[in-house]
Every structure is written in C-alpha cells, then in structure tokens.
Design a protein that fits this description.
The chain is an alpha/beta fold. The chain contains eleven helices and eight strands. The protein has two domains: 154 residues, HAD superfamily/HAD-like (Rossmann fold), CATH 3.40.50.1000; 67 residues, DNA polymerase, domain 1 (Orthogonal Bundle), CATH 1.10.150. The longest helix has 18 residues.
Length: 226
C-alpha cells in the first residue's frame, strides 16, 4: 500500500472540496450592491474570498456607511445556504482524490475551514464527503481568530495528535495559505485557474510549497509510491 508522506492532511473546504466560492461570492455581491456599494465581481472576489465576513465589517462600513451586524450576517447566510443547496457541486476530482488519500491516511485527515460549522457540514453532506471526515471538521469561527491566523489548523492538528510541522495543508486562497504557513505546516496550493482562483504567484508569495492545478495530482503529492 502507498505510504503517507505526512502525519496528517488538513483540507480547506471552500474551493478545495466544495465548488462554492462563486456561489457564495455572488450572493455577497448582491447584498453589498443592495447596501449601495457598486462592487465588481473581481473586486468582491479580491476582497472577501478566503476571509471571515464578520472580520470585514470596517471595509464594508467604509464603502456603504452601514455597520453589518449579526442580523445582516444571518440574512446573508440564509440566502447563501439556499443558493448552495440549489447548485453546489464538489470541486472536480475532489471526491476521488480524498478517497485515494484516505486509503493511506485513514482517519488522519480533517477539514479545517474559516466558514461557520453549519455551512461546512452542509457542504460536505451535499458533495458526499461527510463519510471521509466524520467529526474531524473544524471551524475557524469557533477559534479565537479565523484565517489568515493559524488557529483552526493548530486546533485540527492537535485533535489529530500531530505537530503542525508534520501536517500537510491543502488550500486555494492567500488567506488560507497564510494560515497554514503560520501554523508551521507544509502547504500545497490548489490553483485550477478561472476568475475565482488565486494565481500561482499569489499562493507562492503567501508561502505555498508547491502548486497543483488538478485534483488528480493531489494523491501523488501526499502519498509515497502513488
């Protein structure tokens, strides 16, 4: 059997497992436009993807004059979840890649996201990925700080009983790569291209050790003899 190269693998969710970024970002952009901020798709992607929305209130306030609160964030999550339930799919090849990784790593994998727990658990269920992660799902919103701080990756590594330096992190955003690097992990940057994707240069600058462009490549990066 192929041997694992790391003690554990920690997967981001949005953009790595669930092809959700364009759906979520479109809902957010609509709501920001409703507040009077005529933000472009590119601008919304650049500012918000990979970050916790609640932490971005100063930016939203500066551009709209409105201080988002728990009620507004709750409305956003309701609209977001409806859109996700309607059209969410797994990132192409992610189910197959995780299946192959699990053959070598077993339960030494986790999902570590900056999103709220309800969202990530819904997405894993909708994409058929819940079976691989079980209760090894960690939300940055339940940590003192969310990405780009390392807290969620430190929490996930501790729960799996490994040092962060022994773990591989799979990320697709600058904020996520920064979080993995700050935790001390080896970070692999997923860069499939397209309007939602960070560029290889951005991910390398954030500290990614290696870039891959297709989920078919991932098991070979994580498993010896694959």
């Amino acid at each position: 059997m192929p041997r694992p190269q790391f003690a554990a693998v920690l997967f981001d969710c949005d953009g790595v497992l669930a092809d959700s970024e364009s759906i979520t970002n479109a809902v957010l952009r609509e709501m920001l436009i409703d507040l009077g901020w005529n933000i472009s798709q590119e601008g919304c992607i650049s500012i918000f993807i990979g970050k916790s929305l609640k932490d971005q209130w100063p930016c939203i306030l500066a551009n709209t004059g409105f201080r988002i609160d728990d009620q507004w964030i709750g409305q956003f999550r309701n609209r977001r979840d409806l859109a996700l339930r309607s059209s969410l799919q797994a990132v192409p090849g992610s189910v197959e890649a995780v299946t192959q990784v699990v053959e070598s790593y077993g339960t030494q994998i986790a999902c570590a996201t900056g999103a709220d727990r309800a969202k990530v658990e819904m997405q894993l269920s909708l994409t058929g990925l819940t079976q691989f992660f079980g209760d090894r799902v960690f939300s940055g919103m339940e940590c003192p700080r969310s990405k780009p701080a390392p807290d969620v990756y430190l929490t996930a590594a501790a729960a799996l009983g490994v040092e962060p330096e022994q773990a591989a992190v799979i990320e697709d955003t600058v904020a996520g790569v920064s979080a993995g690097v700050a935790a001390g992990a080896t970070v692999f940057g997923y860069c499939p291209g397209g309007p939602i994707s960070s560029t290889p240069e951005q991910l390398f600058e954030a500290g990614a050790s290696q870039i891959f462009t297709s989920m078919e490549q991932l098991p070979g990066l994580l498993v010896q003899g694959y």
